[in-house]
UniProtKB/TrEMBL annotation:
<dbReference type="InterPro" id="IPR000715">
    <property type="entry name" value="Glycosyl_transferase_4"/>
</dbReference>
<feature type="binding site">
    <location>
        <position position="267"/>
    </location>
    <ligand>
        <name>Mg(2+)</name>
    </ligand>
</feature>
<feature type="binding site">
    <location>
        <position position="192"/>
    </location>
    <ligand>
        <name>Mg(2+)</name>
    </ligand>
</feature>
<dbReference type="GO" id="GO:0051992">
    <property type="term" value="F:UDP-N-acetylmuramoyl-L-alanyl-D-glutamyl-meso-2,6-diaminopimelyl-D-alanyl-D-alanine:undecaprenyl-phosphate transferase activity"/>
</dbReference>
<dbReference type="GO" id="GO:0071555">
    <property type="term" value="P:cell wall organization"/>
</dbReference>
<feature type="transmembrane region" description="Helical">
    <location>
        <begin position="263"/>
        <end position="282"/>
    </location>
</feature>
<comment type="similarity">
    <text>Belongs to the glycosyltransferase 4 family. MraY subfamily.</text>
</comment>
<dbReference type="GO" id="GO:0005886">
    <property type="term" value="C:plasma membrane"/>
</dbReference>
<feature type="transmembrane region" description="Helical">
    <location>
        <begin position="20"/>
        <end position="44"/>
    </location>
</feature>
<keyword id="KW-1133">Transmembrane helix</keyword>
<feature type="transmembrane region" description="Helical">
    <location>
        <begin position="200"/>
        <end position="219"/>
    </location>
</feature>
<feature type="transmembrane region" description="Helical">
    <location>
        <begin position="97"/>
        <end position="118"/>
    </location>
</feature>
<dbReference type="InterPro" id="IPR018480">
    <property type="entry name" value="PNAcMuramoyl-5peptid_Trfase_CS"/>
</dbReference>
<keyword id="KW-1003">Cell membrane</keyword>
<dbReference type="GO" id="GO:0008963">
    <property type="term" value="F:phospho-N-acetylmuramoyl-pentapeptide-transferase activity"/>
</dbReference>
<dbReference type="GO" id="GO:0008360">
    <property type="term" value="P:regulation of cell shape"/>
</dbReference>
<keyword id="KW-0479">Metal-binding</keyword>
Length: 360
């Protein structure tokens, strides 16, 4: 919205600053951060008053989690509110990729909100049927995948790009949309599975969003893509403003989600943020890099898949408990120890993901 102030500039003056994506990204970060600090306490008070007993705690979960009973959920509303406000205020609203990621974020937030609401109302961990959640997630992701193909350059439409092997493209044709669905739905559910300890999910999400924001800015500039020899996707640079909002809103939320958490993100936040990461990867043609940058989420999801398949086949467990962060809890690791070590792993993976821009 504020971008239109550039019309008041003749190429100089203070309003000219709004032409720069980096300046507006900084504004989005500060706006989202301020939003989190201002609206965090009143939102938490409302959630605590409305929810009563708070988020139900798994009866088969680690014993240490029972002390968290009564903690309200749906804290993702704070992050989503910060991201939406900052993006609408600072991004160019004539950019289709901005609306694509907003569409996925809000749609998955709605699914997560319905699930959280059902859990709190029924006071059990079942929530909305998994089949219904997946069906809605598939439909939203399919729309987003088709949307992205309409704005990708003709040379990149329906193509799968590879990091390092930058001249290599795989034409998926019609199957690009199912592939995009797998990326977006997989990302959303992987982040959802990771959100099991205080502060565990939000920092890796912020790291991944910041990394993808840098990538989006790079592939959206023709001069940078020529220097790095990566594929140019016009318009994706504006996604940096959106990811800056995630970073600021995430920091604001972490203030209240740090151990011991005053509020949980809930599916409202985890599904929305995971879906957003997937949508950004599809938009920028960096789906494979997302698997590197979000490697922690991949491992968390794989630990659940391996546990379920192995148990069905043998009746035994690979991990003491899945997702894998609960395995380490069962082994005696303290919750802050797990969280901080997983943050470190996320940062390392993000740096590896960024390195693929230069490595050939």
């Amino acid at each position: 919205m504020l971008y239109w102030l550039t019309e008041l500039s003749d190429g100089g003056g203070v309003f000219n600053l709004f032409r720069y994506i980096t300046f507006r990204a900084g504004g989005a970060f500060l706006t989202a951060l301020l939003f989190g600090f201002l609206f965090g306490p009143p939102l938490i008070n409302v959630l605590r008053r409305k929810q009563g007993k708070g988020q139900p705690i798994r009866s088969d979960g680690p014993e240490s989690h029972f002390v968290k009973a009564g903690t309200p959920t749906m804290g993702g509303l704070l992050i989503i509110g910060a991201v939406i406000t900052s993006t609408l205020l600072w991004a160019r609203l004539d950019n289709p990729f901005v609306w694509l990621v907003l569409f996925v974020t809000l749609s998955y937030a709605a699914i997560g909100f319905a699930d959280d609401y059902a859990k709190v109302k029924k006071q059990n961990t079942a929530g909305v049927s998994g089949k219904v959640r997946l069906l809605l997630g598939f439909l939203i992701a399919a729309v987003a995948g088709f949307w992205a193909t309409q704005y990708h350059p003709d040379a990149l439409a329906n193509q799968l790009a590879f990091p390092i092997f930058k001249d290599t493209l795989l034409n998926l044709g019609f199957f690009f949309i199912p592939f995009a669905v797998i990326v977006i739905v997989g990302s959303a559910n992987a982040v959802n599975l990771t959100d099991g300890l205080d502060g565990l999910a939000i920092m890796p999400v912020m790291i991944a969003a910041g990394t993808l924001g840098i990538i989006a800015y790079a592939v959206g500039r023709v001069d940078v893509t020529e220097y790095l020899d990566v594929h140019y996707v016009p318009g994706t640079g504006e996604i940096l403003v959106f990811t800056a909002g995630i970073f600021g809103g995430g920091l604001g939320f972490l203030w209240y989600n740090a151990p011991p958490a005053a509020v949980f993100m809930g599916d409202t936040g985890s599904l929305a943020l995971g879906g957003a990461l997937g949508a950004i990867a599809v938009s920028t043609k960096h789906e494979i890099v997302l698997a590197i940058v979000g490697g922690l989420f991949v491992v968390e999801a794989l630990s659940v898949i391996i546990q379920v398949l192995y148990f069905k086949r043998t009746g035994k467990r690979v991990f003491l408990m899945a997702p894998i962060h609960h395995h380490y809890e069962k082994k005696g690791w303290a919750e802050p120890q797990i969280v901080i070590r997983f943050w470190i792993i996320s940062l390392i993976l993000a740096l590896i993901g960024l390195a693929t821009l230069k490595v050939r």
